Amino acid sequence: MIVHRDQGLLAQAVAARLVTRIVDAQAAQGHASVVLTGGGMGSASLAAIASSPARDAVDWRRLAVWWGDERFVPRGDPERNETQARGALLDHVDLDPALVHPMPPSDGPDGNDPEAAAERYADELRKAVEPGDHGNVPSFDVLLLGVGPDAHVASLFPGMPALYEEERPVVAVRGAPKPPPTRLTLTLPAIQAAKEVWLVTAGRDKASAVRLALSSGAGPVQVPAAGARGKLRTLVLVDRAAAAELPASLSRLASP
């Protein structure tokens, strides 16, 4: 758990960490992969990369980009996480289009069928698996997640059927408790396949969720953020407001 003074510093810190992690992965493997999240902090962190001179350290042509969840709305809709990520960063760097993997929109090849769209994305993930990945999704280098006030991550909301899924890497979510109600999301096993999972959140309204996510007795069905863990590392990056309900022993203050 690393605590930054405010949302602005948190976004800058996440941006710096992500650039460093991508560069390190590319140096070690020749390529890197990230899974993006939506929401205010997700977009702010990407925008911070776009405005940083350090962005030029990344070989963007050797970066695979995936998404952890998506609102099932038409392509280009401002509510889509893809649309927000493109505006914040992706349209401003030289990515290989073949390595950018947005989740299908509601006006895509499957039409308004979120289950078929989820299976299409699952198949895309399977095709990207390499021999060392040992599963049905790639071993992403970094998977970013926001945390909602109810402790949801991606579009995995407390108590919903998607949290019980153990086989499929991607599922459709209908009746989500926040609009839009229909979404696509990675499941917890797919999230847990990532080498590193970073939980990034800010604001006093997230403090209870952060506390629950880090409590020893939390189960992922009622506290989905508690199930978001990386194979090698899990980082919790928050601002002071989101850390307000945590004991000092759990956090390390990064910003005075």
* CATH T-level topology: Rossmann fold
Please give the CATH architecture: 3-Layer(aba) Sandwich
Reading off the top of the CATH hierarchy, the class is best stated as: Alpha Beta
Average pLDDT for all residues: 95
- For the largest beta sheet, what order do the strands appear in spatially? 3-2-5-8-9-1-10
Termini separation comes to 15 Å
Number of domains: 1
The percent of residues in helical segments reads 25-40%
**SSE order in H/E notation?**
EHEHEEHHEEEHEHEE
Q: Which percent band covers the strand fraction?
A: 15-25%
Number of strands: 10
Shape: globular
- Main sheet, how many strands, which sense, barrel? 7 strands, parallel
Q: Which structural class best describes the helix and strand composition?
A: alpha/beta
Structure characteristics:
256 residues; alpha/beta; Rossmann fold; seven-stranded parallel sheet; three-stranded antiparallel sheet; 6 helices; 27% helix
Q: What is the gist of this entry?
A:
About 25% of the residues lie in helices and about 15% in strands. The chain has a seven-stranded parallel β-sheet with strand order 3-2-5-8-9-1-10. The protein has six helices and ten strands.
Describe the structure.
With 256 residues, the chain is an alpha/beta fold. It has one domain: 3-Layer(aba) Sandwich (Rossmann fold), CATH 3.40.50.1360. It contains 6 helices and 10 strands; from the N terminus they run βαβαββααβββαβαββ. The protein has helices spanning 7-29, 39-50, 81-88, 114-127, 188-191, 207-214, and strands at 2-4, 32-36, 63-67, 69-71, 142-145, 170-173, 183-186, 196-201, 233-239, 252-253. The strands form 2 sheets. The protein has a 7-stranded parallel beta sheet with strand order 3-2-5-8-9-1-10. Strands 4-7-6 form a 3-stranded antiparallel beta sheet. The longest helix is centred in the first third of the chain and has 23 residues, at 7-29. The two termini are 15 Å apart.
